[in-house]
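Sequence only, no structure available. Ideas?
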Amino acid sequence: MPTGRSPDSRRSERVVRRRRASIVANIRGQPERFPCLIVDSSQNGFRLRGLFSKLRRGQTIEVIPEDEPFSTVSCNVVWTGALGSKQEGQIGVHAEKG
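Reply:
I predicted one. Tokens follow.
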């Protein structure tokens, strides 16, 4: 079944990067920090694995790679993995250009 996207439709190549990181997100009006794993990254964003049940699509977060703590990247949540799916416990985020 066709997906409606051409094989060349990805804007930038993904690089597998199993790196530890953390995110900072406003939950109930307060910034909270959560550990996570950067599963892969591209020029435009990241796929992250962690406990993200409180995050929602469109929410702004900061991604902080453990090995580069001064390289904080402001991102928007693009998708969240559905419960019971292969992507459960994962989110996709788009890096804001700034």
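The two ends are 38 Å apart (CA to CA).
Hope that gets you unstuck.
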